[in-house]
Amino acid sequence: xxxxxxxxxxxxxxxxxxxxxxxxxxxxxxxxxxxxxxxxxxxxxxxxxxxxxxxxxxxxxxxxxxxxxxxxxxxxxxxxxxxxxxxxxxxxxxxxxxxxxxxxxxxxxxxxxxxxxxxxxxxxxxxxxxxxxxxxxxxxxxxxxxxxxxxxxxxxxxxxxxxxxxxxxxxxxxxxxxxxxxxxxxxxxxxxxxxxxxxxxxxxxxxxxxxxxxxxxxxxxxxxxxxxxxxxxx
Length: 234
Ligand SMILES: [Fe+2]
Ligand SMILES: [Fe+2]
Known about the structure:
The protein has one domain. It has eight helices and no strands. It has helices at residues 47-50, 55-73, 79-111, 115-136, 144-175, 178-194, 208-217, 227-231. Helix 2 (55-73) runs antiparallel to helix 5 and helix 4 (115-136) runs antiparallel to helix 5. The N and C termini lie close together (7 Å).
């Protein structure tokens, strides 16, 4: 299945430029590294350079931003304005999910009390979110079909974030030492910079069972997730 459809009508290179301000300023930009205009990481300054940002805090930062951006869409009707908010949101939904799959869940699987179930649920949820995001890309921004797809992504994402925060993230905090959390935070931040705007990123769905099997059967946490090989099973 190829769900890697981008949002051509609203892509930054096609008339909907991404702004670069910090979300703390109230603008629509997504959390990223300072040089790309993202936020200062929570309580830790520049997490990319210092490595002092706990990955669970960085994930929460993104979640907060997602909620605010979806809320911002409620106040808009003009397609150009909707696209300006939606495109960076859609991009980061894709990047965030893949960053978690590449960096966070492999380590949760090794340490959490209920990690396998939490991971299976999360990957399935990520697929639901991706499906909504990519479905929206097929329709004119602001159309009924687009609004339905965005709502699908929003509902899936809201449900998923609550579960992830109360289950996977909580589980990981109880079992991962601070050094690992900071190291993964550094990698998470770097991943977001490297793939800002979902560039050079495969954003297609992955099979949850195949993902868990591959992670538990190989060197979990070695940074080589092998999502490409998982996709080839489809
Ligand atoms: Fe998340
Ligand atoms: Fe997630």
